[in-house]
C-alpha cells in the first residue's frame, strides 16, 4: 500500500496519544530501512498485490496468483 495509506491506517490504530503522526512516520521509516534490503534481495520471489483494494479483492488476488479458488 502507499505510504499515505499506511500512515492513515496506523493513525486509526493508534494505541494511545503517544502514537502521533511523527512517531508513526519514524517507525515506518525505520521499517522501510530494515526491510528494503531484504525486499531487494527477494524481488524475484515477492508478489505485489494492491492492498488498497477491498479485503475480498485482495483475497481473490492472492488465490488467483496461487492458481486456486477460495
SSE arrangement, N to C: HHH
- Strand elements, count: 0
**Rg value:** 15 Å
In round numbers, the mean pLDDT is 92
Please identify the structural class as seen in this structure. Answer: mainly alpha
Q: Mind describing the biggest β-sheet? A: none
Distance separating the two termini: 23 Å
What form results from the Cα inertia axes?
flat
- The percent of residues in helical segments reads 55-70%
In the predicted model, the low-confidence regions spanning at least 5 consecutive residues are none
- H/I helix tally: 3
Strand % is under 5%
Provide a short characterization of the protein structure.
The longest helix has 21 residues, at 21-41. The protein has three helices and no strands. The relative contact order is 0.11.
Question: Can you give a write-up of this model?
Answer:
With 70 residues, the chain is mostly helical. The chain is 61% helix and 0% strand. It contains three helices and no strands. Helix 1 crosses helix 2. It is flat and about 45 Å long.
Produce the secondary structure layout.
Layout: H1 3-12, H2 21-41, H3 55-66
Keywords:
70 residues, mainly alpha, 3 helices
Amino acid at each position: 500500500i502507499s505510504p499515505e495509506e499506511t500512515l492513515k491506517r496506523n493513525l486509526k490504530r493508534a494505541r494511545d496519544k503517544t502514537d502521533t503522526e511523527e512517531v508513526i512516520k519514524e517507525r515506518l521509516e525505520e521499517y522501510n530501512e530494515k526491510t528494503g534490503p531484504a525486499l531487494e534481495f527477494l524481488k524475484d520471489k515477492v508478489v505485489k498485490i494492491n492492498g488498497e483494494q477491498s479485503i475480498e479483492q485482495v483475497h481473490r488476488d492472492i488465490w488467483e496468483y496461487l492458481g486456486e479458488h477460495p
